[in-house]
Amino acid sequence: MKINVIYILTISVFLSMVFLIDSNKFDKLLLDWMNQLTPSSLQEPMSYLTKLGSGEVMIILTLVLMGFLYFKREKLYALMLGVIVFGGLFLNLGLKLLFQRERPGEVRYLEVFGQSFELASYSFPSGHTMRTFLLFAFIIYISYLFITKRAIRLISYAIAVFCISVVALSRMILEAHYPSDIIAAISISILWFIICIRVVPGLVRKYSRTQAPS
């Protein structure tokens, strides 16, 4: 029942943000409020912190964590992480191409490991936010499962929440995204994350049974 409520809430929030794409009143109100509260001195540090959510950093961190889990014989969780993050990358790209919302600033193009592609990087939903949320939500998840010391677990939670929050805020402070892009990214990421952690283990067990010798 609780999971169904989360499904309904996340889908409802995402669809609400979709309806706001053609109207910038909501985004303008929040951006004006943020500009009033945010000192100009934050621009430079945020320009560095936002790189945490870049595709290059997320891919490297994901592969490192997958390798660590595989080395620790946690192959299911390594696979789950790959599906969550890399599946999320394709989901984000598909949604961007579906809605094709222009960014609040100048037109940007997709760039991976220094290579620029002649494909516009659309605004909705925020890729930085989705990537960061999915990776660090998984870190919270495995911390809950495997870290027994409460203090270390709480530190892990705090670092993960900080990383998600600072990347999401940086995208708005740097005017790379509208607030609705960020809210949509978080809502669809929650939905995708829950689907993955519920579906992937079942598919793996089903595949293992079909491959087992009779």
UniProtKB/TrEMBL annotation:
Keyword Transmembrane helix: yes
Annotated ranges, domain Phosphatidic acid phosphatase type 2/haloperoxidase: 75-197
SMART domains xref list: acidPPc
Gene3D superfamilies to which the protein is assigned, alphabetical: Phosphatidic acid phosphatase type 2/haloperoxidase
Protein name: Phosphatidic acid phosphatase type 2/haloperoxidase domain-containing protein
Sequence intervals crossing the membrane: 5-21, 52-71, 78-99, 129-147, 154-174, 180-200
CDD domains given in the database record: PAP2_like_2
Keyword terms of this UniProt record: Membrane, Transmembrane, Transmembrane helix
InterPro entries: PAP2/HPO, PAP2/HPO_sf
Superkingdom of origin organism: Bacteria
